[in-house]
Amino acid sequence: MKVIFMGTPDFAVPTLTKLHESGHEIKLVVTQPDKPSGRGKKLKKSAVKEKAEQLGLNVFQPDKIKKSENIEVLRSCDADIIVVVAYGQLLSKEILDMPKFGCINVHASILPELRGAAPLNWALINGHKHAGVTTMMMDVGLDTGDMLLKDEIEVDRYMNVGQLHDILMEKGAQLLIKTLNKIQDNSITRTKQDDALSTYAPMLNKETQRINWNDSAENIHNLIRGLSPWPTAFFSLDDKFVKVYGSDFNDEETRHEPGYVEKVQKDGIYVSCKTGTLIIKEIQMPGKNKVDVEAYLRGNKFPENVILK
């Protein structure tokens, strides 16, 4: 099939690579414009653009894909299908209706759960025991189209979002090729989503990242791994933000108020929560590198009997 591929971040790169290897013809790769990055604000290519250039593919970087002149660029490709993986812009109905087989999306959740911008993070923040990817037909709603294929994995209590990302980006690539092949031989089954079962995975912000000690230790642990290594959970100590990358927890009753540092030892910083105790394993102090607590304590002290905010 003749394919237009739309994607931007690392998550989309394995799918582009598998698509290139599959024998389907990639007519165009559409990705977000280069963006200023770092202190020097030097323009940085998206991960998808870098890969597309390595593969010798044509790249198109419109600022707004819905503009009429940009739609005409897509139309000129005469594509059979458009594949979208974390592109970063919404498609108009005109684009969705353009290809013979429509537009399909690789979405990083088990739909209809976790529609929206940050399904990987929220799967862990919400303590889900399973996660996965779904291929779906795109419509004008937010991740509301008919489901095609799914792939699901078990999630243990220590998996963080970086690890989940790396697993599911490969699963998504494999699932996309299976989906295209089934569409091509007319053996695909479309399943409508049950809106009553849907949940939402909104964009993350600073309020999401701030640890609320007046919560259970398990919920805080899930928040930390759901934001590690990016964008990272944090707490305040002496009016400075401390990032937390790794943790554990227990459900033992505590006599102290939430946020109280019970003890500091090699295996972690023990902090009272509304229920249970969080054990901080890996931190980044202001202006310092990320380090595990044992290594930090070799040359530094962390205060006990204080209240973290």
UniProtKB/TrEMBL annotation:
The keyword Calcium is annotated on this UniProt entry: no
UniProt xrefs under SUPFAM superfamilies: FMT C-terminal domain-like, Formyltransferase
UniProt keyword terms in alphabetical order: Protein biosynthesis, Transferase
Domain Formyl transferase N-terminal: 1-179
Residue intervals of the Formyl transferase C-terminal domain: 204-300
Catalytically driven reaction(s): L-methionyl-tRNA(fMet) + (6R)-10-formyltetrahydrofolate = N-formyl-L-methionyl-tRNA(fMet) + (6S)-5,6,7,8-tetrahydrofolate + H(+)
Enzyme class: transferase
Residues that bind (6S)-5,6,7,8-tetrahydrofolate: 109-112
InterPro entries in alphabetical order: Fmt, Formyl_trans_C, Formyl_transf_N, Formyl_transf_N_sf, Formyl_transferase-like_C_sf, Met-tRNA-FMT_C, Met-tRNA-FMT_N
EC code(s) of this entry: 2.1.2.9
Domain of life: Bacteria
One Pfam entry name: Formyl_trans_C
Function: Attaches a formyl group to the free amino group of methionyl-tRNA(fMet). The formyl group appears to play a dual role in the initiator identity of N-formylmethionyl-tRNA by promoting its recognition by IF2 and preventing the misappropriation of this tRNA by the elongation apparatus.
Protein name, per record: Methionyl-tRNA formyltransferase
